[in-house]
Amino acid sequence: MSADVRLPARLAVLVVREGVLPLGADEAVAEADGAVLVTGSHTRPAAEQLVSARRVWSAETGLGPAALAAALAPLLTPVHTLVLPASPDGRDLAPRLAAALGRPLLAGAVEVLPHGADVLRLGGSALVELTVDGAFVATLEPGVRGATPVPGAPQITELALPYAADRLVHGPVRDTSADAGDLAGARRLLGAGGGLGGPQAVALLTEAGAALGMAVGATRVVTDAGWLEYARQIGTTGVSVDPDLYVAFGVAGAPHHTGGLGAPRHVVSVNTDPYCPMTAMADLGIVADAPAVLAALVRRLQSGAAGGEVRDAA
Questions:
Q1: Which domains does the chain possess?
Q2: Positive or negative, the Cα torsion across 110, 112, 118, 119?
Q3: Quick one: how far is CA 54 from the chain centroid?
Q4: 117: β partners
Q5: How many CA atoms lie within 13 A of 125 on its CB side?
Q6: How many Cβ atoms from other residues are within 10 Å of residue 127's Cβ?
Q7: What are 238-293's pLDDT values in tens digits?
Q8: Entry pTM
C-alpha cells in the first residue's frame, strides 16, 4: 500500500466475496460518514453498488481474516473509529483487527458515537452506552440504522496490499476454486482440519480431491492459518454444504464447522481423538494420524489400478 494513503478518522471496513456486499454494508458506511475500505474479491464492482459511500478505498485480496487483519493494521493504525457490519465476515474480522491494533472492540452497536457506542446487551433487552479513551473498533447491527443514499458516484481509490501480505501466515494460500468445483453444491467432499498440521498436507489433500473427483473444504482453523483460501471454509461463518459423503481429515468438529455441514448421508472421520465430535458423528471413524492416512491414500491413488479402485470406493 502506498505510504501516502490518508484515511479519515472514522472509516467503515467491508469484506466482500465475489462482489457481493455483506448484510448491513450501507448502514456501516453511513455510520462512517460515507468513508469505507472495501476488501476481498471483486471489490470495485461491490464498491459501485454502495449507495451511502462518498469515498472508497478498494483493496483486492484473498487473505483470510487473521492474515487480513495483520495486513490492514499498519494502514488502519491512524484511524480513530473503525466500523464493521455485524455480518459473519464482519464479526470474524473485527476482533482480529482490534487485537492487531491493540484497541477495544465494541460489539453489537446500534449507534457509533465519537468516543464509544450504544450497544445491545442482555439478549437485546438492554441498551448500554460504552465509552472508551482513544481509538476503537465497533460492529454495527444490521437493520437498526438505515442508510440514506448520497447523490453521485463515490470516489474510488484502488490500493494494493503488500506482496508480503500473502505470506503473513504459515504458507501460501492455494486457490482451489478451479479444480475443486462448486463447494456448496458438491455431493462428495474432503475436509481439511487443523490436524493436518500445515499447508503441505492440505495441498496433498487437494491433490487427492482432484484424483477422486471430490471438492475440498476446510475448517476455520485452516483458513485462518492461510492453508486454504477463505472461500473454502465450511461452517456457519463460511459456506453451507449438504453432501452425500464427507471425509474429514484432522477435523475436530467444532459447532461452527458442523453447523454448516447440513445432513451428510455418510461421514468418515480421520482423527487421533476417538472422542472428538467429528468422530462421534461419523459412520466410520479412523483413529489414526490424519497426515499419515492421507499420505497412504495418495500413494494408492498414484499406483494406477489401485487408484481406480479407491475412486470407485469413494
A1: 10-167 (3.40.50.620), 177-313 (3.40.50.1220)
A2: positive
A3: 27
A4: 112, 130
A5: 2
A6: 12
A7: 888 889 999 999 999 998 899 889 889 999 999 999 999 999 999 999 999 999 99
A8: 0.56
